[in-house]
Design goal:
Length: about 90
Amino acid sequence: MPYHYVYVLRSGEDGTNYVGCTNNLKRRLDEHSSGKSFSTRNKRPLQLIYSEIYLNQQDAFTREKFLKSGWGKNYIRRILQNWFRSKNLGG
């Protein structure tokens, strides 16, 4: 049974976060880093700052949708507040 991942990348270019979902995290991170992903091509360098793993694809898609919402963005800021502070970032 394949795993499904929801992940958050932080842009070193403009400080924005990108939320994505994949069944192969290493491959997807390589695609983002090498500029093969249109949505993050101009936001490199990118840093993986958060990830979750799911057994069910639909659960992962539901979580991705939540993390892209206003409440989800607040959730990321809240759980990573110490990381953002250590980097002097607003989240």
